[in-house]
Amino acid sequence: MAAASTRKAGTGLPPESERFLRCCADVANALIEDHEAASDGRAARKDVNLNALRARYAKKHKLGSMPPLTAIIAAVPEHYKKYILPRLVAKPIRRSFPGTREVTTSAVLAR
């Protein structure tokens, strides 16, 4: 009887990779719903706190860490990417070319 009550935590959970994908899909769906609400003229939230959203869904799916933005970008459907990506892409990368003293902004990376 004592063995049944000392059951390991998380034994009935799906694998970590499946929970990770579900978490990314939930975050993407929340961003899409917010975009749809804003485009329909309904009262949308002022500004979605992306880090809080990621943390809430990571906790809901019992993940050890928050999913990275690149995984969330991959979960967004293609026809919504042009609307959702500006919220996810954070800042440009600066890089210098060998042999020059010039620093240019060459790409945009989600951080």
Looking at this protein, list some descriptive labels.
single chain, 111 residues, mainly alpha, two-stranded antiparallel sheet, 2 strands, 12% strand, disordered N terminus
Describe the model.
With 111 residues, the protein is mostly helical. It has one domain (15-109). The protein has helices at residues 2-5, 16-40, 50-60, 69-75, 81-88; strands at residues 91-96, 103-109. The chain has a two-stranded antiparallel sheet with strand order 1-2. Strand 1 and strand 2 form a beta hairpin. The protein starts with a helix and ends with a strand. The model is unreliable at 1-7 (pLDDT under 50).
Helices, strands, pairings?
Elements: H1 2-5, H2 16-40, H3 50-60, H4 69-75, H5 81-88, E1 91-96, E2 103-109
Antiparallel strand pairs: 1-2
Helix pairs in contact: 2-3, 2-4
Write a brief structural summary.
With 111 residues, the protein is mostly helical. Helices cover 50% and strands 12% of the residues.
